What does this fold into?
Amino acid sequence: MIFCPLQHRHIAIAENHQHEEFVLKIVGRDELDFMNYLSSPQMLSDPRNHTVPFSHVTGIGRGKSIIAMPKLLPLNDIPLSSLQTAQCYNLLGQIVEGFTFLHGHGVAHMDLKSANIVIDTSLERLYIIDFGLAHKVNGPEDTVSGFRGTKQWVAPEIEDDGYAYSAIRADLWAVGELIRTVLVLWHKGPTPNNGLEEIYTQLLSTDPSKRPLLVDILSKFVSTDSERVSLHMPPLLVKPDLYNHISLVH
It folds into this structure.
C-alpha cells in the first residue's frame, strides 16, 4: 500500500490492490455522527443529498475513526474560466441544492469554502466534504457562539468573543461568497447581469436576517433552456470493493 500525506495532517491518499486511489481521513465522533446521519439509506435516496460517499474503516481510540472516501477533484483545481454556461450553472445549482438539503435536515456546515467542495471529473456530480465543524439546528433562528470556519469564508457576525449568531444564516453568507468567487473566476472579472449577482449580493448582506433562505433561491439555477443541463445527475458510483484490502500503517 502507498500512503501519500497531504497538507492536512489528518488526511492521506491510499491505494488498494487494484491501484485505485482513495482518501483516508481521521475524524472525530461528531463528524462521523453527522456523516452517518446524512448517509442513511433514506437520506441517500434523495438526489439533493450531496454528502460525499464514505466508508468507516476502523476506530482508533479516543473517539477517533478512520474513514475512506473516493478521491475527487477539488473545486479549487477546476479551470473555472473554461466552463461553458451550462456547466457553471450546473455547478452553482448543485452547491445551492446541496446546502438546501443540509439546512432542510437540520445541519449547518459551518465551514463552507471552495476547498470543501469536490467534484467528479466529468462535472456531473458535486460533493460536500469536511463536517468537522457542523452543528445540528432546528432552523434559522438556532444560534451558536464562538469562531467557526476559515477566515476568508466566515460571515461578518462571526467573532471570537462569544457573540451568538444564526448557524444557518452564517452558512448563507458563505454560500454567497462561494457563488461570487465562482462567477468572478469564471469570467475573470465582473460578472454579467444575469440575476446571479443580485442573489449573491443578498446572501452577502451584513444583516443576517436579510439573507434569503436557499430553498427560496434554488429555482433561480434551474432552467428549461436546452443549453443548460439538469441538476439531478446520477450519483458517483463507488465500487463496493474500493476499500477492500486496506493496510493501515501504525
Notes: Confidence is low (pLDDT under 50) at residues 224-250.
